[in-house]
Prior knowledge:
The structure holds 2 protein chains of 2 kinds. In chain A, 37% of the residues lie in helices and 11% in strands. By secondary structure, chain A is α/β, with parallel strands linked by helices. In chain A, helix 10 (192-201) links the parallel strand 6 (181-183) and strand 7 (207-209). Chain B is built from 8 helices and 4 strands; from the N terminus they run E-E-H-H-E-H-H-H-H-H-H-E. Strand 1 (49-52) of chain A pairs antiparallel with strand 4 of chain B, so a sheet runs across the interface.
Amino acid sequence: MESMGSINETLRDDELRAVLGKLDSQRDKEVFGLVCKRWLHLQSTERRRLSARAGPHMLRKLAARFSRLHELDLSQSLSRSFYPGVTDSDLSVIANGFKSLRLLSLQNCKGVTDAGIIAIGSGLSSLQSLDVSYCRKLTDKGLSAVAQGCSGLRALHLAGCRFITDVLLHALSLNCHSLRHLGLQGCTNISDSGLADLVNGCHQIEFLDMNKCSNIGDIGVSSVSKACSSSLKTLKLLDCYKVGDESIISLAKFCQNLETLIIGGCRDISDASVKLLASSCKSSLKNLRMDWCLNITDTCLSCILVECRNLEALDIGCCEEVSDAAFQGLNGGEVELTLTLKVLKVSNCPKISVAGIAMVLEKCEMLEYLDVRSCPQITKAGCDEAGLQFPQSCKVNFTGSLREPDVLL
Amino acid sequence: MSTETKKKLVLHTSDNETFEIEEAVVLQSQAIKHMVEDECADNAIPLPNVTSKTLSKVIEYCKKHAEDSGEEALKAWDADFIKFDTDTLYDVIMAANYLNIKSLLDLTCQRVADMCKGKTPEEIRRTFNIKNDFSPEEEEAVRRENQWAFE
């Protein structure tokens, strides 16, 4: 038998890393790590992303092994949770062990409290993204520590953290000037002055979710639109009933890169401001949810459909005044008007009939989902009788049994 | 068709052999290319880390890739070319790395990776003559950690 040289005596680390880089499957990479200690070290330190279900003992071992990790996902869900779940002592292990961490997801880790989050803030100075949605025990105290310790923070998700107040927004304004994504859904203590404070220091916000922040009004929204005029792409204001025309006019004036706007439940909003917005954001607007905007009429809707050439999703559910006339504008005039609409929701619109849907279908070749629940004039039988041709992959929701697309949530 | 004399470069290996190769072929090595650009290449270029046996393989690759034979033909040629024994394979990897010839490094590392795919750790150790330095407990601990940590 010829004596064969050993690969470990010949190749150096960077050459072995090049070989590891050519392995695609997770399984092959794991096997690579089981060959010998040197290969285990190479495989572990090459690993950038990890999802784990682990208590403190296992986390300590993972921290020792995967020392250069950038992303760690410990999020729980109803189907993927375990007792006792992620605890504050786990967060201490993480803060001390994964020093290069840039992204940490703790979504639904209900056991986490301020003490654990303070450790994260002091230990992980490179952190750029933190998701603590539904970590309901957290308050300003813990999260302000993160703002102070992680000045490079770009994304912070706090949905359901209902104890959060303007105090945190102030801390973010002082420390986190690179903030681009902020999720505050359900943080009902947030007010207009907190928002104004926030955008005083954070001018690059692209994504702002204030769904159900019922204290927010025109003053707050206007301050955001002015300060983040070129960056703002997504603004969510579901059920922010104090938001009115003044906010929409401000957005139309300042935010010409707006792609997603959710104003469902903002009952005071009326035609004039929305028409301005449609005109101003005609090339950028992709997703618009305005269900329950009771003052919206046909002229406004028609304007939106004609002006917004890149619109992909539209929800006008419960806009009771809207009728078939809104769609008539599509057929007059311009020959080339085909809509890019993929999702259309017109549930609870009693004045829309099968004829209106027919007009929509003629222009919307890319339609994937149509919601016509609780429209007394629109039934499956009625559509079949009228010979309506739906696009091949289009799902139509007549009675509420289909799963809804996420884009307008 | 003019028969101009194309410029040649002289390469000097670790076992004292000299190779005279057309510049265009050898410039696929970024390392040599930089030397030429920095004008350090008038005399023979010394390659203390590369033997003549290895260099002839590298040059065979570079000559073929300097021709314009079409992508399909080149792939087929590469697949045939790469069939050397593991010792030569390691030497070519190191030479490709040292001389900075990305496509050759990719090809050779892919070959080693392909020899690992679908195998068990023990099979890989046998293929590459690697000593197992895990105790049974250590190996079991790593396997357990892999179950807790997933993509």
